[in-house]
Amino acid sequence: MNQNKILPENCTLLFSKDKIQSEIKTLADKLNDDYDGKEVVYLTIMNGGMIFASDLSKQLDLDMEMDYVQVSRYGTETTGGQLIWKHQCETNLKGKHVIIVDDIFDEGYTLMAVDEWCHEQGAQSVKSAVLVSKIHERGYADHRPDYFAIEVEDLYIFGYGMDYQEKLRHLNDIYYLNL
Fold it and tell me: Residues with catalytic annotation?
């Protein structure tokens, strides 16, 4: 695939596919150690988390069920952390160890909402794993990811599940916009 013809002009490669896969392998090793012998529900946050969740899951040696939730910020604005639930998982979470998987941690509102919902469903434990965790000074929800593969500065990034104007999630690499 010739990605150059679909990339915005003002972007730069941040992480190659090989670097991303290496970091995912390291994260998978941690999860395999931490969840060995536990009954796990692997819960992907759609749409952004699907590519990362798929690649990560293939490296896990866990007794797990897979399901998903679909949650998005209300409307086109990012105000107040208001979220719309488009789909709640159908897997029974009672007494199970839930791993919430998403593409990026920015301010934490989505992860916090899904975490709280999982606890309300009776999960024994709930932890989150994200591909990218952003470093910035903006306010956070009262939630941080438990696991992350890559940490980045506060850049507008896209590719590998993360969108640019609702597109380009399918790219193998991660790019950032030169703003």
Answer: 106
